[in-house]
Amino acid sequence: MLIDRGFAAPKLINQAKENDLQVIVRVKDSVARRLLSNAQNDGSIVWRSQKENISLHGRVVHIKNQIPGFRSSELYIFTNTSFSDERISEPYLQRVQVEVAIRHIKQTLGLSFIAAKNPDAIRKEIYIAFLTFNLIRAIMEDVAITYSIPIKRLSFSAALSLVKASSFKLLIAKPSEKSVILAKLAKLLSQSLLPQRKKPRSYLRVVKLPIGKYPSASAIKMEEGK
Fold first, then answer.
1. Sign, Cα dihedral of 20, 22, 27, 31
2. How many helices (H) and strands (E) does the chain have?
3. Per-domain residue ranges for the chain?
4. In angstroms, rounded to a whole number, what is the distance separating the alpha carbons of residues 63 and 18?
5. Are 10 and 56 in contact (CB under 8 A)?
6. Residues 6+ apart with CB under 8 A from 204
7. For 74-97, how does the pLDDT look when each residue is reduced to its tens digit (9 = 90+)?
8. Rounded to whole angstroms, how far apart are CA atoms 111 and 132?
9. CA–CA distance, 202 with 224 (Å, rounded to integer)
């Protein structure tokens, strides 16, 4: 069970532990320092919450990183697993790409707003969006391997547009013609590369600028959304 910083309520973590789930949770720096100050001789930590009358046994892993997308170069992770530090840190160091995937599902595939009101129809919309996302990602991965391109350099929006444009052709094409259409799609997608930033953004995506005080803030935020 992975929980990000800010959602690490001891009651929630304890509930996961009672269901025999392994817990990996990023904690705030202040919480981590308090836990580390009370560490046992063997490095183990007991995270006590007097409010919920809960004691959590585990350890705190201190990770340093310089990966773009993280405001802090240090991470503190509480866990009750026996995983290595590298294995524990891996999911969090992939966070930027995970958030990009969520953005594509919500914005590019239009799942940020669901018009359906019936529960079954809502589930269908969600399933369709996730199936579409997985299909596009599978195509991108195949193209990335074929052309030796990092998959994060490929444009998800371009892949979606190319698949839409090719779907009808594939539907009416003869079996001998489908491979040609798919090869052309792959080649076009391999040329739809995202630009490589030479320097980080001026403003982090999480920064909320006071538009009323700074009129140019709206333009900056629009630029950040690109």
1. positive
2. 8, 5
3. 2-93, 97-190, 199-226
4. 27
5. yes
6. 71
7. 788 888 888 888 888 777 777 778
8. 11
9. 9
Q: For residues 67 and 95, is the Cβ–Cβ distance under 8 A?
A: no
The span from the CA of 72 to the CA of 50, in Å, is 29
Q: Which amino acid belongs to residue 146? A: T
Is the CB of residue 207 less than 8 Å from the CB of residue 225?
no
- Cα-Cα-Cα-Cα torsion 25, 29, 34, 35, nearest 10 degrees, comes to 20
Is 186 within 8 Å of 140 (Cβ atoms)? no
Proportion of the chain in helix, strand, coil states, percent, rounded to 5: 50, 15, 35
Residues 6+ apart with CB under 8 A from 131: none
Q: Which amino acid makes up residue 91?
A: P
- The DSSP H or E segment spanning 181 is helix 175-190
Give 58's contacts (C-beta < 8 A, 6+ positions apart). Answer: 23, 44, 45, 47, 78, 79, 80, 81
Looking only at the bridges linking them, the beta strands covering 54-64 and 45-49 are antiparallel
Q: Are 5 and 26 in contact (CB under 8 A)?
A: yes
Per-residue pLDDT tens digits for 157-193? 999 999 999 999 999 999 889 999 999 999 999 999 9
Query: Which pair of tokens denotes residue 18?
Result: 């009672």
